[in-house]
Amino acid sequence: MTIKLMCAFALAFLFATAFGKVYIPWLKKEKARQSIREDGPTWHMNKSGTPTMGGVMFILATALICLTLGFPGMLKGNFVHIFVFLFALVFGAIGFLDDWEKVKKKQNLGLTAKMKFLLQLAAALVFVLLMRQMGYLRPNLYVPFFHATIHMPEWLYFVFASFVIVGTVNAVNITDGLDGLATGTSIPVVLFFVILTMAWGEQYLELGLFASGLLGGMMGFLVYNFNPAKVFMGDTGSLFLGGAIAALAFAYDIPLILVTLGIVYIIETLSDIIQVVYFKLSHGKRVFRMAPIHHHLEMGGWTGKKWTEREIFVLFTGISLVFAIISFIGVVQRYL
Known about the structure:
336 residues; mainly alpha
């Protein structure tokens, strides 16, 4: 099984890196370029014109793994990795529509927030209902670290699952604000599911192949997305990535692990919420120089030190890695 997971990673990595050499020049030719927020850090304006929708690179890499190395599982009637991929792909499609609107209008505004929320909520509900219907989900909530299970009414579980999924997707999207940041912080998160597959055994192989393919694709994408970025993942990539992480957490039946596993996403999202709420309550005062918190650090934070994008990448990726290890400790004993 370990060899299959390693092959999935290697094949996806090679595909993404090779595809990027053709895809990025094509994006430039088609002028699929990112518009930068005018209210953001002034030095970000030199990124204007960088190709976007680079997330297609790891989406296709993941699809390749699901349809090749994941094919034997499909012959045996196990389609869980396909459901997870298709679910993430729906979110990627929503992100693509958003990116397309931005490219077409040549501004950093795509679909309305209300439209995106309704589309995401509908996708989440369909996924949860389908996974439940196919027997891949149960309305029970496993509590990591305590190894306890909370039995929930089915309707309440569906509501809980839908909002957790939508929240996760948007939290990952918020984190995608600096070169390589969403990619770097998500690599330990996806690696967590790969290692968990190795620990829990063959019954999770198909999900592990999906996670390994996604991990390899992201590493290949990072070759081009690391500072200074040659391409951005765009909402196409960040929404797909958020959907994949949320779907994996539910498919492994450990959604509450997202509290520790997704700590960076939570910090980023909370900083944004705190900024907006405090700004309104204080009639114009701010907690952060700019939200989310990665921009706060860029602009000098509370100490005056202006963090570089690479420093923030290392810091946030390191935090994500530490909490991925903590999360693994919290759930690994469940099926051992």
